[in-house]
Design brief:
Blueprint (H helix, E strand, L loop, with lengths): L2 H8 L3 E7 L4 E9 L5 E2 L2 E4 L4 H21 L5 E8 L7 H12 L5 E2 L8 H8 L19 H20 L8 E5 L3 H12 L3 E5 L3 H11 L2 E2 L12 E4 L18 E2 L10 H10 L3 E2 L2 H4 L2 H11 L3 H9 L1 H15 L3 H19 L7
Parallel strand pairs: 3-5, 3-6, 4-5, 7-8, 7-10, 8-9, 10-11, 11-12
Antiparallel strand pairs: 1-2, 2-5
Helix pairs in contact: 1-2, 2-13, 3-4, 5-6, 5-10, 5-11, 5-12, 6-7, 10-11, 12-13
Amino acid sequence: MEAFEQMAAMGHEQVVFVNNPEVGLKAIIGIHDTTLGPSLGGCRLYPYGSENEALRDVLRLSRGMTYKASIAGLDLGGGKAVIIGDPGIKSEGLFRAFGRAVESLGGRYITAEDMNTNVDDMNHIARETRWVTGKGQASGGSGDPSPVTAWGVYHGIRATLEVVFGSPDLAGKKVAIQGCGHVGYYLAGYLAESGAKLYYTDINAGKLDRCVQDFGGEVVDGEAYFGLDVDVLAPCAIGGIVNEHTIPQIKAPIIAGGANNILNEEKADGEALLARGITYAPDYVINAGGLINVYSELKKWPREKAMDDAAGIFNTVKDIINRAKSEGSTTIEAANALAERRLDQVAGIQRLHLPR
């Protein structure tokens, strides 16, 4: 499928390709929908196998941000950026050049941290544009949003447990975390404090060692992850890992994690999970804490408010799962319908023209 066909199929407003060979910058910025406000979404640095793979990722991620902001009740649209490159090779020039590309969009896209980018990278971007969040506190930002993201995921897991088992209590529950980076690490801390028994898998041995040392738990081989006899699978790394190949292996009754686009094919994989009686907490609902945090930064609200708002993900996840059960639909269908309802309502007010 060609680029314009993909954009039309997913409802995107704009896709920007950025090229600056002098600093090694090859980036794609996806702006999905700005009905609710300026598009906001993180900048991901990843060694994509092809440009088509990068385009598919940014389109799916930016669409997810639109739905995430809508569900969370935020006045933001959906956007995302990907930089094609080696996460081990970063430079000031790379991120400052990306910042200039963001600045050229005049506020239609606001960037933030994502996979393989951090506070220092956002500080470089901020030297070229004001349209960036997740900066260090010394630069007027709120710092790393991962603790807030993980806090929302933690409460989303509790909500899913309540629906499936009748109680949100995590004591003695077995949770397997895939991906022990920022979000996975903080999630492990919250879960361990609540008495959960933890299992970890990650391609980075250092991150695994850190989680085991700080929170206890066991390391499992990546190939065995999906077949683990646990209560919850919590994917917190790359997307697309729940698919036609992995679903038949899954024994856990719950999938609830911090990764984006956990389902490789939203409709088919959602239906396959439903058929097997596996409850899926939609990713863009459960991991909205990071977006809530950067929105709080934009509004200059304290971190405590962001944490309180992220805890409200408990009720949202519980409501969506119960809606899906009563309607006989997948949880992702129930979440999409809720998000689209708000988008339609807000789009309706634009029929009244206001002079600028």
